[in-house]
Amino acid sequence: MNVIQALLDGIMIGGVYAVLAIGLSLVFGIMHIINFSHAEFVMVGMFTAYFIWLFLGLDPLIGAFFAFAFAFVLGMGIQHLLIRRVLDAPPVAQIFLTVGLLIVLENGALLLFGSEFRSVQTPYQTMALFIGPIYISVPYLLAFCMSLGCGVALWLFLRYTSLGWAMRATAQNAMAARLMGIDPDRVRRIAFGIGAGTTAFGGAIILPYLTASPTVGSQFVVLMFTAVVLGGLGNVLGAVVGGLAVGIIQSMSTLILPIQLQNLTLFVVFIAVLALRPQGLLKGGS
């Protein structure tokens, strides 16, 4: 029974990891740039939902949609002002820019909000469901359901809308897409905004069970990159699979190891996948 409980916990946590990693994979798939500042949008989403809860009294699950909208606009602005200038630059310039952006966002939040941890209070914060001996935390369940809805919405957008087709065409061949009348610069700007927005959305929905702080993004940056690499860089579906794999491995490893070592098994699997299947578990682009 402990195995089933750990598996269920891993799936719910992994679902949130998946929605956090989707944006990172989408940005890489279309722009071929590794954004080291991407995890900071988790912090942006958490603080947006926190202040909406504080001043408007709205639940963080509702505030998640505002967090998406705010991060979408912020992401588009960052892409237009900064990221697009290094798309054709050497990789080292891209790394310096995104790492610098990470530092600016984190320290900007420290300057604006201080270093204290902030949390919200919701009616379901301590609620749980019991199915026989299986325990399901309501905040985790709601976060998983919201993540699932966000992932499905993004999949439908990429598959059935003209803008989604334009993104997939730009990811495959930007020059050919331009010849077909697509504006790759606009597509990249919107894709970066969606990537930032989905990650901020993920940050907002975990606020009921996690505290917000300017450095909260550092808790997720390695897990996000692990999920994306496991699934295959640039593969949105792979990010979902990678996120679920990270959550399940973390949770199942606590059955045999102390919880402090839950990431040990994860990184052993991560290294093994890199060594044996460097293209990721799912081959192909977004």
Task: Explain how this protein is built.
- 70% of the residues lie in helices and 3% in strands.
- By secondary structure, the protein is mainly α.
- Strands 1-2 form a two-stranded antiparallel sheet.
- Strand 1 and strand 2 form a beta hairpin.
- Helix 1 runs parallel beside helix 5 and helix 6 crosses helix 8.
- The longest helix has 30 residues.
- The radius of gyration is 19 Å and the shape is globular.
- The protein starts with a helix and ends in a 10-residue tail after the last helix.
- The model has no long low-confidence stretch (mean pLDDT 88).
Question: Would you spell out the secondary-structure blueprint of this structure?
Answer:
Elements: H1 2-31, H2 40-56, H3 60-81, H4 91-113, E1 128-131, E2 134-137, H5 138-160, H6 162-172, H7 174-179, H8 184-205, H9 218-231, H10 236-253, H11 262-276
Antiparallel strand pairs: 1-2
Uncertain runs are: none
Sheet with the most strands: spatial strand order: 1-2
Instruction: Assign a percent range to the helix content.
Output: over 70%
Provide the β-strand percentage band: under 5%
Structural class by helix and strand composition: mainly alpha
Count of separate DSSP helical elements: 11
